[in-house]
Amino acid sequence: MYSSRTAWLLLSPTLIILGLAGLVPFFYVLYIGFFNWNPLGVNDQMEFISLGDNYRKLVFDNEFIASVWRSIRFAVVTLFFELTLGFLLALSLLSSFPLKSFFRSVHTLPLVIAPIVIGSIFKLFTVQGFGPLPHFLNDWFGYDLNYGRSAAQAFWLIVIMDIWHWTPFVTLTLLAGLSALPQDPYESARIDGANNFQILIYITIPMMIPVLIVVIFIRLMDSLKIVDEVWMLTGGGPGYATRFTGIHIWKEVFEKRFYGYSSAMSILYLYVTIVMCWLLYSVMVSRGKSDDE
Amino acid sequence: MMSKISYKIGITFIWSFLTLVTLFPIYWMILVSTRSPVELFGKPDLSPTFFEKIYWKNYTKPFIDGVYSEYLFNSIIVATSNAVLVTVLALMATYALSRFKLAASENIFFWTMTNRMAPPAAFLLPLFLLFSTVFRYGDSNLFDTKIGLILLYCVFNLPFAIWLLKGIIDGIPKELDEAMVIDGAGLFTIFYKLIIPLAAPGIAVTSLLSFLFAWNEYLLASTLSSVYARTIPTGLSEFVTTTGSNWGFMAAVAVVSMLPALLFLVLVQKYIVAGLTFGAVKG
After folding, report:
1. DSSP sequence for A38-58
2. What span, in angstroms and rounded, lies between the C-alpha atoms of B264 and B213?
3. Gap from B186 CA to chain A (nearest CA, Å)
4. Does A218 sit within 8 Å of B276, measured CB to CB?
5. At B276, which helix (H) or strand (E)?
6. Where's the ABC transmembrane type-1 domain (chain A) (predicted)?
7. d(CA B234, CA B222)
8. Mean pLDDT in consecutive groups of 10 residues from the start of chain A, 293 residues
9. Tens-digit pLDDT profile for residues A117-149
10. Among A12, A1, A17, which Cα is nearest to B190's?
11. Where are the domains of chain B?
12. Angle, helices B247-277/A151-179, rounded to nearest 10 degrees
């Protein structure tokens, strides 16, 4: 009834904003990545070097590579705990028990709190001097928690914070998936005399695989992005112990101001996440197609 | 029968424990915000503070004597404007994507999604340079302005808003639009009389979640503002450098910045899963 010109007119503000603030920065950072540009140096002009020099340097940059491995290790560790815990909790929410909706509401709470506030909550909870956690750990178990000095403690404290923050997301997503499963296979299995454990292994988990893949990808991408909470809690320290890729780039850009080199870092970082995003999208699309059949 | 009851007791016990684990750190932060530095010293006291004994200075010092009232004002302006802008633009875009068969609509959707998923840290440098030097009009640029932040948050909120509204607007029969066109209604009347009333719940959820995202965002706000556009999360992070003495202030500011989340929790709870997974899992 309307011409497609009207459609493009309605779409144009969205496309313009997304283009200016999403696409332009992407190509700009790609462009700067080919230059040597250090505004604080002796020569503060942009200077073309080559298409690959910054990237070649990056591959041998131990600090950057270490930060990427640190992020990946963090993502995998948190994913393991959140997925296990979240799956068990989602299964438990399928049955009915007293106060269930209250428990679920409280469980949702961490998801709406700002990451930076979550960092503050954990900082106040674990701070040396008056924080309850170090105090009670010391009183009850004689364990000395001081993440300002111990790299391992800092890393695991952030893992715990992330589990506290994001397990509810895994629980609720898997619960949504579990509630949508067809009931026929369960009835057949019961008639065949399968026990609960067999039903879980041979029916529930295989049917949940598409949902699990979505959850895994989203959690991996979010973990690779993490900055705010970590910055608030440990500031990336002690030393480099919790300096994940996002924090590393942020600090490199605004402390050293090697613009060209930092751009190459950003692009590499972006590349990893875009590849993962594309995988997620293909899974979603193929799932949508199988739903239609 | 017996085992079923013990199972229920066990589950309830586990969930009670989890609820305690979730609430206890938040409870502690609220306690810290009500105590003076002297009261905080030494063994942590977990008993609630009586109303008469609340140390109000933690709240009045940053918010009345300090600059945090400005930060709060900035946050309210940025988050509200962003929510309104996102909702209006997303309604227009979604209507276009829903009612017209556009050749590129699939690609547009994928592209908007990558915008949402991309790590903000990778965009810090180009956005900083673009905002401070390239996007300028005369002497004014976007760096350290509220408008800059409002526009920027659209990149993250629009994709989600479009996705959420798409399902709802697709559900409004096309025949209703056509009937209105025959009656001589223009596009504006269709929006005003038909789409907005029928999609009202979805519009409310979209704007609330957009508000929440803009309110909570830290990294981009801290990079792209220095004095005039600083929001509450950036103000909160300022306590990181001044460690030691200001725990009460930090807790008070954190409590205030947590308030909208608590208010909206009840309203948006049902949609959080859908929002965070982009509808890949129907909540």
Report:
1. -TTSSS-S-EE--SSHHHHHH
2. 12
3. 10
4. yes
5. helix B247-277
6. 68-280
7. 5
8. 76 86 86 82 73 83 89 92 94 88 89 92 88 88 84 93 94 88 87 86 86 83 88 85 89 83 87 73 64 47
9. 999 999 999 988 788 898 888 888 888 888 888
10. A1
11. 56-277
12. 40
What are the tokens at A198? 């067999």
Rounded to 10 degrees, what is the CA torsion of B65, B67, B73, B78?
A: -170
Cα–Cα distance measured from residue A209 to residue B265, given in angstroms and rounded to the nearest whole number:
29
- A35-36 and B140-141 beta bridge pairing: unpaired
CA distance B53 to B33: 12
- Most B-contacting residue of A17, A85, A116, A250 (CB-CB within 10 A), to test interface: A116
> For the domain with range B56-277, which CATH number is right: 1.10.3720.10, 1.10.10.10, 1.25.10.10, 3.20.20.330?
1.10.3720.10
Q: What angle do CA B82, A168, A157 make, to 5 degrees?
A: 95
Can you tell me the distance from the alpha carbon of A30 to that of A266, in angstroms, rounded to the nearest whole number? 9
**8 Å CB contact between B43 and A135:** yes
Residue A120: name the closest of B41, B258, B223, B272 by CA. B258
Q: State whether residue A235 sits within 8 Å of chain B by CB.
A: yes
Instruction: Give residue A170's pLDDT.
Output: 92
Segment (H or E) for B110: helix B105-117
Rounded CA separation A18/A26 (Å) = 11
Is the separation of the CB atoms in A36 and A49 below 8 Å? yes
Domains of chain A: 61-257 (1.10.3720.10)
Low-confidence ranges of chain B (pLDDT < 50): 283
Task: Read off φ and ψ for residue A36, nearest 5 degrees.
Answer: -100, 115
B196 CA: distance to closest CA in chain A (Å): 15
Q: Give the pTM.
A: 0.87
Q: Tell me how far apart the alpha carbons of residues A38 and B114 are, in angstroms, rounded to a whole number.
A: 30
**Do A189 and A196 contact (CB within 8 A), yes or no?**
no
- From the list A84, A97, A113, the residue with the least C-alpha distance to A232 is A113
Is A221:A277 a contact under the CB 8 Å cutoff?
Answer: yes
Residue with tokens 């798409």: B166
